[in-house]
Automatic annotation (TrEMBL):
It comes from Anaeromicrobium sediminis. GO terms for molecular function: N-acylphosphatidylethanolamine-specific phospholipase D activity; zinc ion binding. This is Metallo-beta-lactamase domain-containing protein. One of its GO terms (cellular component) is cytoplasm. Pfam families: Lactamase_B_2. Residues 119-314 form the Metallo-beta-lactamase domain.
Length: 365
């Protein structure tokens, strides 16, 4: 009888899980035949999946001790609420002209202004980077620099890939009506359309393809990562880094990536960059091919011929096993030894190129 009860409970849990994945909008849309016809033309799409340029395994070790580490590692979350600047919208709008401005929202979410155009990069603004609040760790800060309703009208949203900590259902639903255009890697349009974004507002690009928006140019460039929002759609959509070129200014956004020789190629083709925003956190030796170590972040910045480095993909969520502030400490040590300029704004603090480059060690309580 006990076996029957346990089996029934297991079947019920599995059934609920399948139904949740099938009908919950957070998992995104499904690719259509029309989508596949376009995707199949990409040389990066092979045997039904997108591939990295370099041989890449998301897990380089079969040792599963890191699962135990996830629950036993120390200092993986701060013992205080991460400070957030809340009054940036007024000062952000007061500073007009051709200044390049960026506000970091934590992790990889950034509000960028270039040539008076407002662009949101990977706007993950929810409390938990997961399809359900019970399936992920909460944000380190208790608030954001500005609520979604306060965010100004956006000329563009740029998405690097479809993982939950970069492409967020709730954020897109709330932002979509104030966004003129979405620039995304191949396949991600299916998610956006299922969430109510008009098809005419979506531009999907393969690596090295570009799109114009008035005086701006958006270029999808390679990264070394993977994609997927469910159990059965791994690598069905493309992942990208991005080059954003404006009038007399050049910006690079890494999205997620392990270190790759592609950084040198991007630097040769499109560098030098006035600002690079490159991931430096959520690394581990078990997945070192898809997430850079902080020292590699500095190396990538140099490969890109970057002038100023803003480290991202840290400071908001626990997604790995290292101490929460280790990424920036390791990065600064390496950057100082190589004379690399780094800005470390608090979440919500405005960086203005050539005018205001915050460098406080705010993570040290």
């Amino acid at each position: 009888m006990l076996l029957i009860i346990m089996s029934s409970i297991l079947i019920l849990i599995l059934t609920m899980g399948v139904l949740f994945m099938e009908f919950s909008p957070q998992f995104g849309g499904k690719l259509t035949e029309k989508d596949y016809e376009r995707i199949k033309k990409s040389k990066n799409f092979q045997k039904g999946k997108f591939k990295n340029i370099e041989d890449t395994h998301s897990m380089t070790s079969t040792d599963l001790r890191w699962i135990i580490e996830y629950f036993t590692s120390k200092d993986t979350t701060p013992n205080f609420s991460v400070p957030v600047e809340n009054s940036n919208l007024v000062s952000y709008n007061e500073d007009q002209g051709d200044n390049v401005k960026v506000i970091w929202f934590g992790h990889s979410a950034l509000l960028l202004e270039i040539n008076n155009k407002k662009i949101f990069l990977d706007p993950m603004l929810s409390e938990v980077p997961a399809p359900h609040p019970m399936l992920g760790s909460k944000r380190f800060s208790t608030n954001l620099p500005m609520g979604i309703d306060e965010i100004p009208e956006l000329d563009a949203v740029v998405i690097s890939h479809d993982h939950y900590d970069h492409l967020d259902y709730v954020s897109i639903k709330k932002l979509k009506d104030k966004v003129k255009m979405f620039y995304v890697p191949l396949g991600i349009g299916a998610h956006l359309k299922s969430w109510g974004v008009e098809e005419t507002k979506i531009v999907e690009l393969d690596w090295w393809q570009e799109a114009k928006f008035e005086e701006l140019t958006f270029i999808s460039t390679p990264s070394r990562h993977f994609s997927g929002r469910g159990l059965f759609n791994r690598d069905s959509t493309l992942w990208s880094s991005w080059v954003i070129k404006g009038k007399d200014v050049n910006i690079f956004f890494s999205g997620d990536s392990g270190y790759s020789e592609s950084f040198k190629e991007i630097g040769e083709k499109f560098g030098p960059f006035d600002l690079t925003m490159i991931e430096c956190g959520q690394y581990h030796e078990a997945w070192s091919k898809i997430h850079m170590m902080p020292e590699e972040t500095v190396k990538a910045h140099i490969d890109l011929k970057g002038k100023l480095l803003l480290p991202i993909h840290w400071g908001a969520f626990k997604l790995s096993l290292h101490p929460w502030d280790e990424p920036v400490e390791r990065l600064l040590k390496e950057a100082n030894s190589l004379n690399v300029s780094v800005t470390t704004p608090k979440i919500g603090e405005t960086v203005i190129l050539g005018k205001s480059v915050p460098s406080s060690e705010w993570w040290k309580k």
